[in-house]
C-alpha cells in the first residue's frame, strides 16, 4: 500500500496450495496490509484470503503462555466448552514446566508401553523444516512411524494412485500451464473457492479459447466459463471416466504409439472398460452418452488436455480408483509428458505437498522412500544414527481407532503430540474422534489458538503464526518458496521449530541445530540431503535469492523442471502402469430414513476448520455464520425458505444450521462447509476408508434434513 509503513517483509500466503507470494506491510509491530508479489504462481494476484486474511495473527485470543490442564478438570468430548473460557480448564505455566510435563509423560508412556503407544500429527500449515523435524522426532524419539497429517484427509488416495501409476505423487504440469492447453478437465474441484488465483489462470485461458470441461456433482462458479458442464451423479466418477476411456478406445482415438512405448497393462484396461460404454454408463452417471463421447473425443484430440482435480475425486472409498481412471485417461490419449497436458491434483493446504515430501506420513521417509524398503531403512538408520522401526505406522483415522483400542491391544495409542492440526474438527465422525482424543492418557497440542483439539489436551504449547517465522513451503506446482518472519510471536509464544527441538531434547535426542531463526537453514540443508536428488539443486541460499524454485532440480544451475515425465516415468520400468477400476458404491447410501446425500467441503472465505479465517475480521464479516446449501427444488419440496433453520442428521450426529439456496447443488443433496464449530459438518461424516489411500469418505454419506 501507499501508506507509510515501518517495514515490508516478503513471504508466502499461508492459506492454499496455489502459493501466492506476498508482502506483509508492518507498522508498529502490526500487519496493516498485504500486497501481492510477482511470484511464478500468482504474478501479483491474491484472493480475498491472501489479501485480507492476516489479522488473525493479532487476534486477542492468541495463546501467549504455555497451559497445563488443571487437576481434576475432566475432558468432555460431548461438550467441548467455550474456547474463550479456557481459564476454567487450564492454568498458565512456564515453558520449562510445560515442556518437562509434555515430553516427560510421553517418554514415560513410551518406556512403559513401548514406542507404538505414541503418535504424532504434524501440520500441512507449517514449514518444510517443521515437518521434517517433527517426523524425525516421532521416528527417532517416539520410536515408531506413527506420524501423519491432514494429507490423509486430502489427497492420500490421489497420491496412492499416482505413485502406483506414474511413480511420483506430485503434479506433472503446473497450473499456469493451462495457457498451453486446448482443453482442461476440472473434476471434483471448485477452484474459484479453493484455489482462487489458480482459477483466474483457467478463466484467462478460457478467454483465449481453451475449452474448460467442468465435471462435478455440484455446478460451481467455474461452470460459467465452461465449454461443457457434466453434472454427474455424486459417487459415479468411475462410471463417467471409464465411459470416456471406452469412447477413446471404441472410436480409435488411442495414442497407440504413446501407449506402446510408455505404458504397461493396456490390454487389461481395454478388457475392463468393455462393459463401460457411454451408452451403458449414461443412466448411471446421469450424463447423455453423446455428451460423454463428445467430451472424450475433444479430450483425446485437443493439442493438449490437462486434468485438474480436487477432493471430489479423492475423498471417496473409491478415491484411488477415481484417480487411476484419470491416469488411464491421459495415458491412452497421450496427454501427458508435454506442456499443456497431464495430471494436476490441486493441493489444498499451503504446504501439504512439502509436508508430504518431508516425510510427514506413516509409510514413507522424506521423498517417499518407503519405511519397509530395506535400502531406505538402512540409509536413514545411518543418516540419523539410530535404530528405526521398519513397519509402516498408523494413519490419521487409524490412530483415532487405536486410541480407543482395549488396554490389551499392544498397539493401543496412549499419548499424542499434535502440532498445528485440529482433528477434533477435521476428522470424520467427530463424536468418535473427540472421544478418542479425550481418552488419551496424555495429549500435547501445539497451536496458536485454543482449538477444539486443544480443549482436550493435557498440555497446550503456544506456537507462532505464519508471519512470525521463517521457513520454506512447497506449493501445488512443486515450487519451494520462502516465508520470512515479519513479526515476533506475542507474549511467551514461540516458533514451532524451537518447540519441536525442546520436545526432542526432553525425549532424550541430542539435536544441536545452529544458526538464526532456530537453525532453520541447517534443518533445511539436512532435509535436502535426506531427499536425495529431488531438491538437490535447491540450496537454502538459492531460495533466499530466487524466492521460488521448482523441483525436480538436480543441480545449482538447473532451472527446475515445470513439466515432468517428458522422457520417462519414475516407475521401475519407466512406463505408466495402467490399473483398471470398477464401480464400487459409496459405503453408505441414502435410504428411507436418511434420504439425502451430504457433501462436505470448503468455501472461499473460510479455511478448513476456521481457526484462522474466522478470526480474520474481513473474512468473518463476509461469511459470519454456518450455512448449508440446497437446491431450490428441494427447499420448495420441504417448505423451506433460504435463511430458515434446518436440522441435518446422520447415523453419527446432527447439526442445526441455516439453509441457503444454491441451484448448483444437486437435488437430494446438501452441501456443508466444515469450518464452523457450532455446526460441525464432520459430526455427520462417515469414517469409512479408501483401502489404498486410507482417506475417509467426506464427499458422500446419508443424512436426513428436517425443518427447524
Ligand atoms: Fe492465498 Fe491461495 Fe488465495 Fe493465493 S489463491 S492468495 S495462495 S489463498
TrEMBL record:
Q: Which GO terms describe its molecular function?
A: 4 iron, 4 sulfur cluster binding; formate dehydrogenase (NAD+) activity; metal ion binding; molybdopterin cofactor binding; NADH dehydrogenase activity
Q: Which UniProt keywords apply?
A: 4Fe-4S, Iron, Iron-sulfur, Metal-binding, Oxidoreductase, Repeat
Name the family.
In the C-terminal section; belongs to the prokaryotic molybdopterin-containing oxidoreductase family.
The UniProt transmembrane annotation reads: none
Q: Key word Disulfide bond present in the record?
A: no
**Which superkingdom does the taxonomy of this entry point to?**
Bacteria
Q: Where is the 4Fe-4S Mo/W bis-MGD-type domain?
A: 6-61
Gene Ontology process terms (BP): formate metabolic process; respiratory electron transport chain
What is the designated name of this protein?
NAD-dependent formate dehydrogenase catalytic subunit/NAD-dependent formate dehydrogenase iron-sulfur protein
What GO CC annotations are associated with the protein? membrane; oxidoreductase complex
Keyword check for Oxidoreductase, yes or no: yes
Q: Which organism is it from?
A: Thiomonas bhubaneswarensis
Query: Secretion signal: which residues?
Result: none
Amino acid at each position: 500500500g501507499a501508506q507509510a509503513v515501518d517495514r515490508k517483509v516478503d513471504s508466502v500466503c499461508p492459506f492454499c496450495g496455489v502459493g501466492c507470494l506476498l508482502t506483509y506491510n508492518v507498522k508498529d509491530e502490526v500487519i496493516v496490509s498485504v500486497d501481492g508479489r510477482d511470484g511464478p504462481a500468482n504474478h501479483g494476484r491474491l484472493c480475498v484470503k491472501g489479501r485480507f486474511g492476516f489479522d488473525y495473527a493479532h487476534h486477542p485470543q492468541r495463546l501467549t503462555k504455555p497451559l497445563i490442564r488443571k487437576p481434576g478438570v475432566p475432558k468432555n468430548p460431548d461438550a467441548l466448552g467455550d474456547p474463550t473460557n479456557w481459564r476454567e480448564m487450564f492454568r498458565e505455566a512456564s515453558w520449562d514446566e510445560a515442556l518437562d510435563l509434555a515430553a516427560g509423560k510421553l517418554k514415560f508412556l513410551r518406556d512403559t508401553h513401548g514406542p507404538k503407544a505414541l503418535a504424532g500429527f504434524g501440520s500441512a500449515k507449517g514449514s518444510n523444516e517443521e515437518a521434517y523435524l517433527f517426523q524425525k522426532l516421532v521416528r527417532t524419539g517416539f520410536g515408531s512411524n506413527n506420524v501423519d497429517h491432514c494429507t490423509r484427509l486430502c489427497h492420500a488416495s490421489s497420491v496412492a494412485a499416482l505413485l502406483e501409476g506414474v511413480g511420483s505423487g506430485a503434479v506433472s504440469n503446473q497450473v499456469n500451464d493451462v495457457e498451453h492447453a486446448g482443453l482442461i478437465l476440472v473434476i471434483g474441484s471448485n477452484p474459484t473457492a479453493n484455489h482462487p488465483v489458480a482459477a483466474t489462470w483457467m478463466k484467462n485461458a478460457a478467454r483465449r479459447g481453451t475449452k474448460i470441461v467442468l465435471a462435478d456433482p455440484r455446478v460451481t462458479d467455474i461452470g460459467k466459463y465452461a465449454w461443457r458442464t457434466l453434472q454427474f451423479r455424486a459417487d459415479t466418477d468411475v462410471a463417467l471416466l471409464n465411459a470416456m476411456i471406452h469412447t477413446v478406445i471404441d472410436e480409435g482415438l488411442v495414442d497407440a504409439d504413446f501407449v506402446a512405448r510408455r505404458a504397461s497393462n493396456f490390454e487389461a484396461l481395454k478388457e475392463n472398460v468393455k462393459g463401460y460404454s457411454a451408452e451403458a454408463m449414461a443412466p448411471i452417471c446421469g450424463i447423455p452418452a453423446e455428451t460423454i463421447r463428445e467430451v472424450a473425443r475433444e479430450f483425446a484430440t485437443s493439442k493438449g488436455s490437462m486434468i485438474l482435480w480436487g477432493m471430489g475425486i479423492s475423498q471417496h472409498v473409491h478415491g484411488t480408483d477415481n484417480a487411476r481412471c484419470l491416469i488411464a485417461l491421459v495415458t491412452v490419449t497421450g496427454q501427458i509428458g508435454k506442456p499443456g497436458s497431464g495430471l494436476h491434483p490441486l493441493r489444498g493446504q499451503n504446504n501439504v505437498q512439502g509436508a508430504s515430501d518431508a516425510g510427514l506420513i506413516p509409510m514413507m521417509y522424506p521423498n517417499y522412500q518407503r519405511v519397509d524398503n530395506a535400502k531406505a531403512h538402512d540409509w536413514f538408520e545411518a543418516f540419523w544414527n539410530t535404530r528405526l522401526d521398519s513397519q509402516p505406522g498408523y494413519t490419521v483415522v487409524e490412530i483415532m481407532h487405536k486410541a480407543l483400542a482395549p488396554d490389551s491391544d499392544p498397539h493401543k495409542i496412549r499419548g499424542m503430540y499434535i502440532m498445528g492440526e485440529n482433528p477434533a474438527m477435521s476428522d470424520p465422525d467427530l463424536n468418535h474422534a473427540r472421544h478418542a482424543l479425550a481418552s488419551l492418557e496424555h495429549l500435547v497440542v501445539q497451536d496458536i489458538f485454543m482449538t477444539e483439539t486443544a480443549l482436550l489436551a493435557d498440555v497446550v504449547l503456544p506456537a507462532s503464526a505464519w508471519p512470525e517465522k521463517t521457513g520454506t513451503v512447497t506449493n501445488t506446482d512443486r515450487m519451494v518458496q520462502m516465508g520470512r518472519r515479519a513479526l515476533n510471536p506475542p507474549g511467551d509464544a514461540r516458533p514451532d521449530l524451537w518447540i519441536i527441538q525442546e520436545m526432542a531434547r526432553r525425549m532424550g535426542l541430542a539435536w544441536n541445530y545452529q544458526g538464526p531463526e532456530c537453525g532453520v537453514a541447517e534443518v533445511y540443508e539436512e532435509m535436502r540431503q535426506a531427499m536425495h536428488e529431488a531438491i538437490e539443486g535447491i540450496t537454502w541460499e538459492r531460495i533466499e535469492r530466487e524466492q521460488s524454485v521448482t523441483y525436480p532440480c538436480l543441480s545449482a544451475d538447473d532451472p527446475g523442471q515445470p513439466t515432468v515425465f517428458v522422457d520417462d516415468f519414475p516407475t521401475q520400468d519407466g512406463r505408466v502402469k495402467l490399473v483398471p477400476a470398477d464401480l464400487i458404491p459409496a459405503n453408505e447410501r441414502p435410504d428411507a430414513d436418511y434420504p439425502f446425500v451430504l457433501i462436505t467441503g470448503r468455501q472461499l472465505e473460510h479455511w478448513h476448520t476456521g481457526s484462522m479465517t474466522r478470526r480474520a475480521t474481513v473474512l468473518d464479516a463476509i461469511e459470519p455464520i454456518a450455512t448449508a446449501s440446497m437446491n431450490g427444488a428441494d427447499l420448495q419440496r420441504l417448505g423451506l425458505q433460504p435463511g430458515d433453520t434446518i436440522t441435518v442428521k446422520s447415523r453419527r450426529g446432527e447439526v442445526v444450521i441455516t439453509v441457503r439456496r444454491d441451484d448448483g447443488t444437486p437435488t437430494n443433496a446438501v452441501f456443508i462447509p466444515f469450518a464452523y464449530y457450532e455446526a460441525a459438518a464432520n459430526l455427520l461424516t462417515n469414517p469409512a476408508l479408501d483401502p489404498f489411500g486410507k482417506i475417509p469418505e467426506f464427499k458422500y454419506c446419508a443424512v436426513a434434513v428436517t425443518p427447524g
